[in-house]
Design goal:
disordered N terminus, signal, S9 family peptidase, Methylamine Dehydrogenase, Chain H, mainly beta, 3 helices, single chain, 7-stranded antiparallel sheet
Amino acid sequence: MIGVAIQLKRISISLLLFVCIIISSMPAAAQAEDPSSGPHFSDEIIWNPYSIHALPDHRRALIVDSGSGGKPKTSLNMLDLVHNVLLWQITTEEIQDLHLLSHPDKIVLITAVNGKLHKEVYNFDGKLLSRDVFNNKLTVPESDNEYAKTVQWIPPQGKMQERIALMNQENFRLFQFPWDKAFLAEEVKIKPNSLYEYINVRDWSWENPSHLIVKYSGSYIMGSDYFIKVYNLDTKTVYKKFYSTTPFAMNVTGNRVYIAMSHNNGTHPANINWPNYSKPQVFLYAYELNTGKDIYQLKQKFTSLPEDQQSGWSTQRKDAVTFNYDIGSTEWNLYDDAGRALLPIQKGFQPYANFVAYDQAEQNVYFIVRDNDSQDYYLTALKVEG
């Protein structure tokens, strides 16, 4: 959900280490022009996990920016990555979901207007193609987390018409035209048990025709575990995966579930299960959605530094490319969806930024980074040798 409370930022500062990387030293060629002279954005870029959407050409990106602290109105910006210029900008209502479609190219926004769900469709040039309200009965679900996804638009596929999925706390509902009542519902609440004092939904995704993938956090004294349950609502079967205390981002594509792991190797309570940095650690899991079986795992040994120094690793997956960064050694690389490294090992980063896109044809990697003076965020490009 777009919009971030300042209080949440203060209490969630450790999350920044898991999802953000900035370039600290770049080749002279990459520094020939000052990238900070291009468009600037608020820290919504970092705090909102749905704020950056690379286009299929890998040379443009949509930037969703609600401004610091979040605002009812949302700025949608089309950025030319190659030339670092703003192609167009649209101000719309608060965005609940965003999809990029091809053939023909379309941007589909699900927005909230006075709590009611609307659909806006634009072309890649920013021209409004249509704007509709679904039904006055379709309202934005409640959430106890500013970042929690509550709405997912599902595009039409074959004979299946478009749908809207809503998650109200732990109650899942699926709608289609005429949008007046849910034709499918499922409660995904897990009661506290001997392991966890609280169990909450942290993310979810609906994948046609029948899979609901839910990410949970289970909290105990001074710690949390994270795990996924996959519900097949046709067969009424469920399987579960656990990932200990290491935070992860979940991405569902087709019949695969990708789990991008990150970890901050800092001070921690003695009762927390902690990765053994003397051994290789898995930073990306790929599972088959139907069975939960491993497709592959990516792992490596990461640098461990004393607790007063920053170390650990960060993993981000965008547009079928996984970016992994060893914070302690500042080494990083990119991987394709078959798990193959795309580059020789690269080096030279420091905290605070976001991977945007990789243009393999031109060997350019794009990042959103922070200006140390203004604290704004802007685009920078790194030319790499493949």
